[in-house]
Amino acid sequence: MIGAIVVGAAGRMGATVIRTIHETEGIEISGAVERPDHPFLNRDIGELSGLGEIGVPLTGDIEGAVEAGDVVVDFTNAEVSLRSLEVCSAKGVAAVVGSTGFTPEQMEKVAGLAKRMRCVLSPNMSVGVNVMFKLVREVAGILGDEYDVEILEAHHRFKKDSPSGTAMKLGEIAASALKRDFGQVGVFGRRGVIGERTSREIGMQAVRAGDIVGEHTVMFGGLGERVELTHRSHSRDNFARGAIRAAKWVITQPNGLYDMGDVLGLK
Length: 267
Hints:
Layout: E1 2-7, H1 12-22, E2 27-33, H2 45-48, E3 58-59, H3 62-66, E4 71-74, H4 78-91, E5 94-97, H5 104-113, E6 118-121, H6 127-143, E7 148-155, H7 165-177, H8 182-185, E8 186-188, E9 202-208, E10 214-222, E11 225-233, H9 237-250, E12 256-258, H10 260-264
Parallel strand pairs: 1-2, 1-4, 2-3, 4-5, 5-6, 6-12, 7-9, 8-9
Antiparallel strand pairs: 7-10, 10-11
């Protein structure tokens, strides 16, 4: 039986992961971690997640929690996840990270830590979104420079980073397929008299409203036609299921940094 430690366990995504693990064969909840000043510390995480008592108290001590499990599942933020990875690397525990907003410097640290541990890090754990990643690469390569690329994403009002990590990944994939540097061609929103659109730019538009779980569209606009690839998340369950699939996969792998493309065999 695989023991999973959930970091950010009392949040919306954490509670979804807790419930999904509880319903999945071959994996169980061995630890639940939150920030040290969280008001629900020491309460049973099953009760907080709507499952009833399961005998796992919420703790602020990640070092202690990691001792009792095999893999950490972390959907928090870049700073917290980096701390989780430092602990996992020191303890030899695997990790699955679905946080977004990592800076290039933080990603360098993640890559260094992954040399001493097994880690799956992906901006989106959804199986469908990762299939979309593959399709965007293929479509961009086929359509080429004659089609303009625009990426639109929509999320709930509580999301803190923009554009989403998934939208950024889609932009990077399209740029790579078109042999462009996304850092040079990405255009984040437009306003005022900005002149005619260039043929090489990749537009990024973000919407924040209500309780939208997550929607991403990649538009390839040509003269006379348009091709669109869209993924819509109806609930957070698909992210949790993907993360658990990754957790069961990564513990059998050698040390290294992986993503959901590796987990799903899409590479």
